[in-house]
Amino acid sequence: MIPELDVRRCNAEKKYTGELVFDFEPEQSLVDIPYVSPDGPVSARLHYNILEDDSVEIAGTLSFALKGLCSRCLKETRQVVAGEAEGYFIPNGNGEEDYAYRNGVIDLREFLRDAVLFLLPARLICSETCTAPDYNEEE
Question: How many CB atoms lie within 10 A of CB 2?
């Protein structure tokens, strides 16, 4: 489950920085590599920092696994994907370049969806030394 960050509550408790650690199920439709799907949840470790104007910086790491057929040789394979994610949230903003939040609560779903999409590889390869079969060989 994806938590929400209640900025008003954090301000009331004078808790301007903190960490969010959670797992969530990724959307199956995000993976557009043929014969590949997510393998388990996405693990998120995010740090937030509430600024004086109530804008919020969120940065951290995401990691998840993909399973399916190698895009080169079609062998079953699994790959762990990990990377950095960062976002800037503005209260009642227009959301053009940054994320907007309303009523003092940040919903992280759009940010996490974008971060997972950005981290996805273009293809799934079983190893760095994978050599695809040569179908042009004469027998």
Answer: 16
C-alpha distances in angstroms, 112 versus 13, 39, 75, 77, 116? Answer: 26, 17, 30, 25, 6
pLDDT tens-digit readout, 3-60: 999 999 999 999 999 999 999 999 888 899 999 999 999 999 999 999 999 999 999 9
Secondary element (H or E) of residue 112: helix 109-119
Q: Degrees (nearest 5) of the Cα angle 39, 112, 122?
A: 55
Helix %, strand %, coil % of the chain (to 5): 15, 45, 40
Neighbours of 16 (CB within 10 A): 14
pLDDT in tens, 81-136: 999 999 999 998 766 778 999 999 999 999 999 999 999 999 998 876 776 555 55
Instruction: For tokens 């693990």, name the residue.
Output: 43
Locate the domains of the chain by residue range.
4-51+58-119
